[in-house]
Amino acid sequence: MSDEEKIVSLSGARNKVKAEKPKTEKADNDSHLPEPVFCSFCGRPNTQVLKMVQGPGVNICSECTMIAVQYLIMEDKMPSGEAQAILDSFWSKIR
Question: What is the pTM of this model?
Answer without folding.
Answer: 0.56
